Amino acid sequence: MFNNVKVRCWRIEVDFNDNIVFLTSPGGFGGHDLIICTNCGEIYAADTEAQLYEKPLDKKLTDLVCRKCNKKLSETYKKYPENYLNNKGELVKYSKDNVIPDDKLSIIKEFPSIY
């Protein structure tokens, strides 16, 4: 069972086809990495501290299945937003900009939590 966690992120329009991604602030304590189930597109938050002090992400995912499609997350996950499913359901690569967007433009979004 997944609990939801609130994550500060930025909503970024990728192209003119209404494809969007969510960016989180880079690393650090109290932050979250995002991963995606490449089978269905469900996005999960992975606490960066928990990855270091509890269990590495790849080990944690061996016990979990996607809450949306029931596939093993250890077999279907990829880092997000570097990988995302577009509006056609295709797995697409996204290159993050090195510039962090303005804090005023950030939003709080809930994602299912891996930890």
Report a brief summary of the structure.
The chain is mainly β and 115 residues long.
Number of helices: 3
Structural class of the helices, strands and pairings?
mainly beta
Gyration radius, rounded: 14 Å
Mean pLDDT over the residues: 92
Instruction: Provide the succession of SSEs.
Output: EEEEHHHEEEE
Number of strands: 8
The assembly state of the depicted protein chains is: single chain
Strand portion: 35-45%
Uncertain stretches of 5 or more adjacent residues: none
Describe, in plain words, how this protein is organized in 3D:
- With 115 residues, the protein is mainly beta.
- Helix content is 13%, strand content 37%.
- The protein contains three helices and eight strands.
- A hairpin with a 6-residue loop joins β1 and β2.
- It starts with a strand and ends with a strand.
- The model has no long low-confidence stretch (mean pLDDT 92).
Question: What are the main properties of this structure?
Answer:
37% strand; 13% helix; 3-stranded antiparallel sheet; mainly beta; 115 residues
Write the layout of secondary structure elements.
Elements: E1 4-13, E2 20-24, E3 32-37, E4 43-47, H1 48-53, H2 57-61, H3 73-76, E5 77-80, E6 83-85, E7 91-93, E8 107-112
